[in-house]
């Protein structure tokens, strides 16, 4: 955890810096929590521009194959294309292009940054850190190298190093990628209002529709996480004005519709979203909503689709045991949830994985151990209704009823709509604990 002076400096720069210059990468390269991959920005304009960039690079390389800079550009563009399309087959293309660049010019910074971004996209965060360190050596004053490190260190649970990397980005290039990463760093430390300020600052610097949509999406997520559906919808709607085809914003609108009780509307939206971009997060949310609506067979089908998508991702070198643990927990498979959570903890011991491991241990009846990991999940101060719900259920199982009431009440006061499956469960548990015996 960063020192108090370090934390104050991060906030000060977020609050006062001006004249920002955007990095070459978009804000959507930031790795935020569940999903482990960021929401796709699937606007036709963005895709057309990226496709043109790929075609241009391919054309240059056909005539001048010994061009490490263009190979690096092509590899990085393939990483972005994988994100936009949710098609992991681009990972292999990206790796091939970036390795070609490095073979022609070893230790060239753009290719090292590209390899780090690719490793982050594949959830190989230890490798991403190593690539980022090499990129920082090659290009010490390039904010993109520090962005790779910020994402990797965040996921690896090295919060002090992550904050330092974000701070360096703010020093070098105080633009959208730096401010959005600063926002997430602040959010993880429970400083939600300051996280919102950082996103507002990012939005001021956003010019393209993809960056505007990205900032509005995460402003909406902060509002949704605090239970403010009206403000969440306002941000999602503003983002859709900039980018009407953004899938992440559509997902946000689907969540608020479900929270408002418009279940059929939300289910219809998720059906479209998952057919366009079958990310595990969207499929899991769709299945959970179907389950809560009493449509178990339809939910089982979506879980089957999710399992197939996870196989596709794994074949492309991307394994996400955190998502797999959450799915198994939702389906009541405590042993599988624990196996995946333990595997993920061995790779990236951050607060999100600590929470998943705590919940899996609770489902398996190992509540004393579960509480240890719930404590780890709470260590940074992140305000999260799901975290509080899990902690409350663990405390209730341990017979610590007064503390359980406090935790469950906190979950529902933070966001009474945090999950179509678990918010009602939290309310029932709270009512039981408060009822006279």
TrEMBL record:
TPR repeats lie at residues 143-176, 213-246. Keywords: TPR repeat. Transmembrane segments: none annotated. PROSITE patterns: TAT, TPR. SMART domains: TPR. It comes from the Bacteria. The keyword Cell cycle does not apply. The keyword Transport does not apply. Coiled coil: none annotated. Residues 416-437 are annotated as: Disordered. InterPro entries: TAT_signal, TPR-like_helical_dom_sf, TPR_rpt. Gene3D superfamilies: Tetratricopeptide repeat domain. This is Tetratricopeptide repeat protein. It comes from Umezawaea tangerina.
């Amino acid at each position: 955890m960063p020192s108090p002076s370090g934390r104050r400096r991060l906030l000060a720069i977020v609050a006062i810096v001006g004249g920002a210059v955007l990095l070459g990468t978009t804000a959507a390269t930031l790795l935020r929590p569940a999903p482990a991959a960021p929401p796709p920005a699937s606007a036709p304009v963005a895709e057309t521009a990226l496709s043109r960039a790929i075609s241009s690079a391919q054309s240059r390389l056909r005539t001048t194959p010994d061009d490490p800079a263009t190979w690096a550009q092509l590899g990085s563009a393939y990483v972005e294309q994988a994100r936009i399309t949710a098609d992991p087959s681009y990972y292999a293309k990206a790796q091939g292009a970036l390795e070609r660049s490095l073979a022609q010019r070893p230790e060239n910074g753009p290719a090292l940054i590209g390899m780090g971004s690719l490793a982050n996209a594949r959830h190989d965060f230890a490798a991403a850190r190593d690539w980022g360190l090499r990129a920082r050596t090659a290009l010490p004053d390039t904010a993109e190298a520090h962005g790779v490190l910020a994402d990797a260190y965040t996921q690896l649970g090295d919060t002090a190093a992550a904050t330092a990397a974000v701070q360096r980005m703010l020093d070098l290039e105080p633009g959208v990628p730096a401010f959005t990463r600063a926002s997430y760093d602040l959010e993880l430390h429970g400083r939600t209002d300051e996280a919102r300020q950082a996103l507002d600052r990012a939005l001021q610097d956003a010019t393209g529709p993809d960056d505007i949509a990205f900032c509005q999406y995460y402003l909406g997520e902060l509002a949704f996480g605090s239970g403010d559906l009206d403000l969440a919808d306002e941000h999602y709607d503003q983002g859709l004005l900039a980018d009407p085809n953004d899938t992440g914003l559509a997902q946000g609108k689907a969540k608020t519709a479900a929270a408002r009780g418009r279940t059929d509307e939300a289910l219809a939206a998720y059906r479209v979203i998952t057919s366009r971009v079958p990310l595990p997060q969207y499929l899991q949310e769709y299945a959970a909503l179907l389950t809560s609506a009493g449509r178990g067979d339809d939910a089982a089908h979506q879980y089957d689709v999710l399992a197939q998508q996870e196989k596709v991702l794994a074949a492309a070198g991307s394994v996400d045991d955190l998502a797999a643990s959450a799915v198994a927990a939702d389906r009541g498979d405590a042993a599988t949830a624990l196996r995946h959570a333990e595997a993920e903890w061995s790779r990236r011991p951050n607060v999100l994985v600590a929470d998943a491991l705590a919940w899996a241990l609770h489902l398996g009846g190992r509540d004393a151990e579960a509480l240890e990991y719930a404590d780890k999940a709470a260590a940074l101060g992140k305000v999260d209704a799901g975290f509080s719900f899990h902690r409350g259920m663990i405390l209730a199982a341990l017979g610590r009823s007064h503390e359980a009431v406090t935790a469950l009440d906190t979950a529902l006061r933070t966001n009474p709509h945090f999950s179509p499956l678990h918010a009602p469960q939290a309310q029932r548990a709270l009512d039981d604990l408060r009822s006279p015996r």
